[in-house]
Amino acid sequence: MIADEPTSHLDISGIEQLEKDLKSFNGAILLTSHDKAFLNHLCTTIWEVEQGKVTVNEGNYEAYIKQKQAKTEKENKQYEEYTREKNRLKQAAQNLQAKSDSIRKAPKRMGNSEARLHKRRSGKQKAKLNRSAEAIETRIEKLAKKEK
């Protein structure tokens, strides 16, 4: 049986009679209604269609609302954790890049042999810091994206 807003033009006694008749009906009922009390009395399973996806929730309307709130809270928490971790990694990458940029070239007053040693050491340090920053950027890209 399919019922679309069956209580919209009924008085209280009509709604009670309809509830009684639907409860005694032997079969499946697909019901659409804005009457929350009516849904609470009749429904055993709520199907929600949201963003093209169907979610099946066991229980009456009140149970559905509780499940929906818990799901929303969980998704919000996951999104907050995702953004916090992404921001932390971005900050770490920026710090490494800044440290790499702060490594200076050899001063002009140094002799050739000293300058070569300094350049070799600073080049290795810069390369290591740059690789670390790139690795963090890769981690950011591979984070499981969470939608708000």
What does this structure look like?
- By secondary structure, the protein is of the alpha+beta class.
- The protein folds into two domains: 66 residues, no CATH class; 70 residues.
- The protein contains four helices and four strands, in the order βαβαββαα.
- The protein has a two-stranded parallel ribbon. Strands 3-4 form a two-stranded antiparallel sheet.
- α3 packs antiparallel against α4.
- The chain is rod-shaped, with a radius of gyration of 32 Å.
- The two termini are 37 Å apart.
- Determine the fraction of residues in helical runs and give it as a percent range: 55-70%
CA-based shape: rod-shaped
State mean pLDDT (0 to 100 scale): 86
Structural class: alpha+beta
* Widest sheet, order of strands: 1-2
Indicate how many domains the architecture comprises: 2
Distance from N terminus to C terminus (CA atoms, Å) equals 37 Å
Low-confidence stretches: none
Beta-strand level of the residues, as a percent range? 5-15%
Number of helices: 4
Number of strands: 4
Order of helices and strands: EHEHEEHH
C-alpha-based Rg, rounded: 32 Å
Helix/strand layout:
Elements: E1 2-4, H1 12-24, E2 30-32, H2 36-42, E3 45-50, E4 53-58, H3 61-102, H4 112-142
Parallel strand pairs: 1-2
Antiparallel strand pairs: 3-4
